[in-house]
From TrEMBL:
Pfam families: DUF1501. SUPFAM superfamilies: Alkaline phosphatase-like. InterPro entries: Alkaline_phosphatase_core_sf (IPR017850), DUF1501 (IPR010869). This is DUF1501 domain-containing protein. The lineage of its organism: Bacteria, Pseudomonadati, Planctomycetota, Planctomycetia, Planctomycetales.
Length: 448
């Protein structure tokens, strides 16, 4: 948390001890900001601005009702939605996704995703690893944390890994963190109180610099420090930290108040109760997150993640789908259209997927249950070959019958788009042993 206020009066200069300590925390796991910047500089990696935006559809989206409809299947399989033609001849998707259908030439559908272990958890979508894989001490890092370690920050004032997801009630849904890489590579989560404290309330830049002498005395807030700050370089990193505090780059990127109303309208209106849940549960259809994601990568983030609504439709699959899927359609279409208009389609890869699919057979509550055998995903940007469908399933969307694509193959492709060779790239774990980013290291050939 970053909190610099003028109201507290515990010190003679009217700033509280607790408030000033929070300067060092930045809500990034308790690691001090000067240490974070030092760790990034120590990487000495070449800087680029390739990026990934991952839209995590927590709960397991119904592939049969979105990307892999089976109109000739029995009624208890095909459901209530009809397929519609897209702007790519021969490709059809759900009638609830007309915007994506109208620009299918800018997307690729994978209908034959395999490798899911069927858990309600973001782990596989964040790390590429399976639950049952042997884990190094500290656990596997998420992709965003790996990028933070390997490539560092594009801009010192913008964290390389940003998570725009809300805090979700089912904790395993929440986007994963740095694993064995440590707190220096945690995702920055600018939600709620953190964003409200990323401003200098009643304090000028001059007054802020006058108070830097307090930093060494009060900065006992850190925990799990990966690298001790060398005394001879502390002043340099403190100065960089103050540069982050006084920079408006990230705040402006995430602040949508000044965005062109026409652009904002394209993305749609936030609906906190689209599914009737208590907003505090975190399963909201926040269309603004798609726009913030685009603005965050444009500002310098290497990876941005966000969740969207909820797809665990064990009952009322079609009623809920009618509410949520059109909103997803609008947000994803607006995001990809925006990336193309701003010339970012070669640099930014968009991946839209969930942790597994849903059962072909509709249950007695008009829902679909968990189905890890096969599911679907949507890709765009990244300089990939789009306007195609990869893989196919059987007549009931029950199993992959052509070109099974493992979830790790998707990760290999994402890393490839970022210029990272998964065959040769390793990261040392806590014991100094080199760890490959993923086990399956060949990108999807149809996309590159």
């Amino acid at each position: 948390m970053l909190r610099i206020e003028g109201r507290a009066t515990k010190f003679c200069d009217r700033i509280s001890r607790r408030s000033f300590i929070q300067i060092g925390g930045l809500a990034m796991g308790g690691l001090t900001l000067p240490q974070l910047l030092q760790a990034e500089q120590q990487n000495q990696r070449p800087q680029s601005h390739k990026a990934v935006i991952m839209i995590f559809l927590n709960g397991g989206p119904p592939h049969q009702d979105m990307f892999d409809l089976k109109p000739t299947a029995p009624a208890e399989i095909r459901g209530e939605f009809q397929p519609i033609a897209t702007n790519v001849p021969g490709i059809e998707i759900s009638e609830l996704m007309p915007r994506v259908a109208g620009m299918m030439d800018q997307f690729t559908i994978i209908r034959s995703l395999v490798g899911s272990e069927g858990r309600h958890d973001s782990f596989q979508c964040c790390t590429g690893h399976r639950f049952r894989d042997p884990k190094p001490q500290g656990g596997w890092p998420s992709m965003g944390s790996a990028l933070s370690k390997l490539q560092g920050a594009v801009d010192p004032s913008v964290p390389p890994y940003i998570d725009l997801s809300q805090k979700m009630a089912h904790d395993p849904y929440n986007i994963k963190g740095p694993g064995f890489l440590g707190m220096a590579h945690s995702p920055f989560r600018p939600d709620g109180e953190v964003m409200s404290n990323m401003t200098l309330n009643q304090i000028s830049t001059v007054r802020l610099h006058e108070r830097t002498s307090l930093l060494e005395k009060l900065d006992t807030f850190r925990r799990k420090v990966d690298h001790k700050l060398a005394s001879e370089t502390s002043d340099n990193f403190t100065e960089q930290a103050l540069g982050v505090l006084t920079s408006s780059r990230l705040v402006e990127a995430l602040d949508l108040e000044k965005v062109d109303p026409k652009v904002r309208a394209r993305y749609g209106i936030d609906d906190p109760k689209v599914l009737g849940f208590d907003p505090k549960m975190g399963y909201q259809a926040l269309m603004s997150r798609f726009l913030q994601a685009r603005r965050a990568v444009e500002a310098g983030a290497r990876m941005v993640t966000c969740s969207f609504a909820d797809f665990d439709y064990h009952s009322d699959n079609f009623g809920r789908g009618r509410k949520v899927i059109p909103l997803l359609d609008q947000g994803v279409a607006a995001l990809v259209e925006d990336l193309h208009e701003r010339g970012l389609e070669q640099d930014v890869t968009v991946i839209v997927w969930g942790e597994f699919g849903r059962t072909p057979k509709i249950n007695k509550k008009a829902g679909r249950d968990h189905w890890p055998r096969v599911h679907a995903g949507l890709l765009a940007g990244g300089g990939m070959q789009t306007g195609q469908v990869i893989g196919s399933t059987d007549k009931w969307a029950e199993a992959a019958v052509d070109r099974p694509v493992h979830m790790q193959d998707v990760f290999a492709t994402l890393y490839h788009n970022l210029g990272i060779d998964t065959v040769t790239t390793t990261i040392p774990d806590n014991n100094g042993r080199p760890q490959y980013l993923i086990e399956r290291q060949e990108p999807i050939r149809e996309l590159i």
